[in-house]
From TrEMBL:
This is AAA family ATPase. Residues 54-198 form the AAA+ ATPase domain. GO terms for molecular function: ATP binding; ATP hydrolysis activity. It comes from Metarhizobium album. PANTHER family: MAGNESIUM-CHELATASE SUBUNIT CHLD (PTHR42759:SF1), MOXR FAMILY PROTEIN (PTHR42759). Pfam families: AAA_3, AAA_lid_2. The lineage of its organism: Bacteria, Pseudomonadati, Pseudomonadota, Alphaproteobacteria, Hyphomicrobiales.
Length: 337
């Protein structure tokens, strides 16, 4: 029995390695196609793609006009996903997202209800300026993101697979915004900060996007192939060293767990979902970077996008002008020793 089992695992490992190498090639072509129309912003593209490859949702935070919408449209095209966009506004209702029942009347005058699906029935949904909508409408979207189905008039309707939400949020200093509650931020696998482009990239944007024709990326994946890659990522082995590093990092960000800097500056820290997100994204990042196994590097690189929306600073730390990013950078530095 023992003998059989070892040959099986080695076969499994061979199959996983072969599948991972095929996925590497696919992910490389996705990167190449996205790069045709999104210039610079490698980190943004990488983290957004990592969320999708890991099967989760991403929150893109940045001022308007930094090509966040263009990125989502481009990803929909390159990944072969049916994409929809919802522009969030203060008067948006849950039914504007989920859909609503309309009354039909046939020739005999008989009336019946028919459900018209809302824009949430997409494989890639862009929720634009999610913090402009009322909490009630936000929670309709966030509940669907968690459960992958909606309930209308007692009927359960499943959302398409794959289903990914890429939400954009304006920085919170802006007028007329409803910040997302902590528990709902936790539903985003990672937070992607979108900054202004570097000089060289901005020059390229000016030259390439103001002429008569713009480059069009090719579709390189299908929804089915994306689901395959997501399943593969969940099967990739993670070494004990990497698992220990993930646990150590996530736990060091919680007050009351023996980290003096955290106790001083952090009001509340990340829950277990942070570690789950890190386990998935570290594997996806390895593939994205052309490797077959996640490393400590992946853990350190993902600390900020995975932890920053899952923790908050104390009033005193904020008064001193500290940011969550500063605290995370300190934790990563400690982790590297």
């Amino acid at each position: 029995m023992g003998m059989m089992k070892t040959t099986e695992t080695s076969l499994d490992e061979k199959a996983i390695v072969a599948a991972a190498e095929a996925a590497l090639a696919d992910i490389a072509s996705v990167r190449r196609e996205v790069g045709k129309v999104i210039f610079g912003q490698e980190k943004v593209v990488e983290n957004t793609l990592l969320a999708v490859l890991s099967g989760g949702h991403a929150l893109l935070v940045g001022v308007p006009g930094l090509a966040k919408t263009k990125l989502v449209n481009t990803l929909g095209g390159v990944l072969g996903l049916a994409a929809n966009r919802i522009q969030f506004t203060p008067d948006l209702m849950p039914s504007d997202i989920l859909g609503s029942e309309v009354m039909d009347q046939d020739d005999q005058g008989r009336r019946s209800f028919r459900f018209v699906k809302g824009p949430i029935f997409a494989q890639l949904l862009m929720a634009d300026e999610i913090n402009r909508a009322s909490p009630r409408t936000q929670s309709a979207l966030l509940q669907a993101m968690q459960e992958y189905h909606i309930t209308v008039a007692g009927q359960r309707l499943d959302l398409p697979a794959p289903f990914h939400v890429l939400a954009t949020q304006n920085p919170l200093e802006q007028e007329g915004t409803y910040p997302l509650p902590e528990a709902q931020l936790d539903r985003f696998l990672l937070q992607v900060d979108v900054d202004y482009p570097e000089l060289a990239a901005e020059r390229q944007i000016l030259l390439e996007t103001t002429g008569l024709s713009e480059a069009r990326p090719d579709t390189v994946l299908t929804a089915e192939r994306l689901l395959d890659i997501q399943r593969l990522i969940r099967q990739m082995p993670v070494s004990d060293a990497v698992v220990d590093a993930i646990l150590a990092l996530v736990r060091s960000a919680r007050p009351g767990h023996g980290n003096a800097a955290t106790d001083k500056h952090v009001a509340w820290g990340p829950g277990p979902r942070a570690g789950q997100a890190m386990m998935l994204c570290a594997r996806a990042r390895a593939l994205y970077e052309g490797r077959l196994a996640p490393s400590l590097d992946d853990v350190h690189a993902l600390a900020e996008p995975i932890l920053q929306h899952r923790m908050a600073l104390t009033f005193a730390a904020r008064a001193e002008g500290m940011s969550v990013r500063d605290v995370i950078a300190g934790l990563v530095k400690q982790a590297k020793g």
